[in-house]
Write a structure and sequence with these properties.
Two copies of one chain form a homodimer. Chain A is built from eleven helices and 13 strands. The first copy, chain A, has 346 residues and is α+β, with helices and mostly antiparallel strands. In chain A, the strands form three sheets. The first copy, chain A, has a seven-stranded mixed β-sheet with strand order 8-10-7-11-9-12-13. In chain A, helix 3 (67-84) runs parallel beside helix 6 (202-210). Chain A is globular and about 60 Å long. The first copy, chain A, starts with 5 loop residues before the first helix and ends with a helix. Residues 331-346 of chain A have low confidence and may be disordered.
Chain lengths: 346, 346
């Protein structure tokens, strides 16, 4: 069946092909195959829901992104949103918009990537739908998590004096995307690429919520600058970020040096870093240390401070300036339409 | 702003434009504007979740479907799935895949239609996302409802001897689609069109579940033949449908006579009738009567019987035959690519 197209296989066969791979835990009372899925909420927990779509040619490009990574990313971006709320992921629904000519093997590989990530986080695919589209392949995932009532992390809790942190390293995903676009081989195995297989910070988010270490939290899907602005706006505060503190990997620094580009700028505005930005009251540093102990080797870096005055600034040796405009999906820069000149300098 | 395009307005402005129209009830702890929505589940109730995408050129066509109907339908098809489970709808998430050149006014009108239906059913839009697409406009809605543990209606409960019922009339939506495709005016106001503004049978579904009148239930998104086959397969039974009993409106009968086509065939295979198919044990007719009393003027018609033997048959004056193949989204007939000859006979 490796060269069956969707049109030749048919919708029912395709659904069976996918649902045959799923197993349902006891809290799923009705899984795929009915009009809707039915799940028993955890006693005393809140439902947390999020949805995010990924479109070929906008969020990924099948010409250089392997199908497993497409499936992985479609779920990962949603788990990252749940992580940013401090929620434990439980279940997902998948809408697949498929062009007629897509190979069934490609869909199988997409599901491989999606289900491998789901399994690692004990997320059950409880339903979804498949439709044809005359446009590009698109995956829209809705993820459902749960969180105890007073453990929710929102964007709105930052207060002046809070310290600003990020998980992981910034800018790797943006650099890797540019390398893939240019047809070059990544310096890391695909499975370790932050762009192709971003690891949603599910455990970190839960730990930060569980012991109430963080006063606010957001994921960096559209870059650090965007997240900082959004948290500041939602909390009614400002933020000053220390450029020298931004965690940037050696690979990413060297790549920028070769290309004559500014790594700080990429760390601030590069999309696809599914890390967490969060704030911590100085009085709660002990709680943060408690959470850190259980996070394994995930780097956590203090990058700035929350200010009373509402601007979002970045400070370096030359002084202080506003953070650059974040990525907007309908405007100016388009992640997948980078001018080749940008990477030709290397 | 009536001629702003999505590209000129920008993503954040567009999200604000939509979220400014929403009000959150107290059980929504975190609504739009954060990484995910947080809702408090009803005590003792189960979560019911469903997702369905609608794509321009596949499920509707903006050339002859007004934007309000596009928004209405995107939510309606999901509420119809919740209704088929006996669930009370509570909340929805919306993924909008927008071509760059789409007018903001069109999006406003889509939201008008979606939110008007949401308001009538007290459904809160708790979140979603917007992305650009190089392909056609697509809306993917995830709807969340709740149901008491022993009130869930599934496709799997039909037993031999049960009676088979449908709500409403069959085939009107298919006829109206063909009329719209041919550029003709509908014989009913747009607001009353089953194709443009299908009314999900939310109250009927809940009533059938609440007093446990129905042994199984499914909605007719892909036509009666498809639903009958799916309920039969899920329940491990057969079904015999009485062609003469199918509820077909005078308009639809007359249209078929003029076109020299078979109205029974359309009633069986025409898609987009978001009615409910359900089965009732003969011993539970009293429960059904109880539910009917509260359904107002919604017609409920007995159309057949559940059989032990696994075929799904239709019986008319000429004898008994298998029901025709249902609609499959990736195969053969495509709702929006009907051969013009089919309607030219009138």
């Amino acid at each position: 069946l490796s060269h069956s197209t969707v049109s030749s296989l048919g919708e029912h066969a395709l659904i069976s092909r996918i649902t045959a791979r799923l197993a349902m835990p006891p809290w799923v009372l009705v899984g795929p195959g009915d009009d809707a899925a039915v799940i028993a909420p955890e006693r005393g927990a809140l439902d947390v829901l999020t949805t995010d779509a990924q479109v070929d040619g906008v969020h990924f490009d099948l010409r250089f992104v392997p199908p497993e990574a497409v499936g992985h990313r479609a779920l990962a971006v949603n788990l990252s949103d749940l992580a940013a709320m401090g929620a434990a992921p439980r279940a997902a629904l998948l809408s697949l918009l498929l062009p007629d000519a897509i190979d069934v093997e490609v869909i199988d590989r997409i599901m491989d990537g999606l289900l491998a990530l789901a399994m690692r986080h004990r997320v059950t695919l409880i339903g979804g739908n498949i439709t044809r589209t005359p446009g590009p392949l698109a995956l829209d995932v809705t993820a459902i998590g749960s969180v105890r009532p007073r453990r929710v992390l929102t964007r709105g809790g930052a207060r002046p004096g809070d310290e600003v942190y990020v998980t992981g390293m910034l800018g790797d995903a943006a650099v890797q995307l540019r390398e893939l676009q240019a047809g070059r081989t990544l310096p890391v195995p695909h499975g370790e690429s932050r762009y192709l297989f971003p690891e949603p910070r599910v455990r970190a988010g839960q730990l930060l919520g569980r012991n109430r270490a963080a006063s606010s939290c957001m994921d960096l899907s559209d870059g650090l600058a965007d997240a900082a602005r959004q948290v500041a706006a939602a909390s009614g505060v400002g933020m000053t970020i220390d450029a020298a503190a931004l965690p940037i990997s050696d690979n990413t620094r060297e790549w920028h040096e070769r290309a004559g580009l500014d790594a700080i700028d990429t760390a601030l505005t590069g999309g696809d870093d599914y890390e967490l930005l969060f704030t911590v009251r100085p009085a709660h540093r002990g709680r943060l240390r408690g959470a850190l102990k259980e996070m394994g080797d995930l780097p956590i870096t203090r990058i700035g401070v929350v200010t009373k005055q509402g601007d979002v600034l970045v400070r370096d040796e030359r002084g202080t300036r506003e953070v650059p405009e974040g990525y907007e999906h309908f405007r100016s820069s388009d992640r997948l339409r980078v001018a080749p000149g940008e990477v030709e300098g290397r």
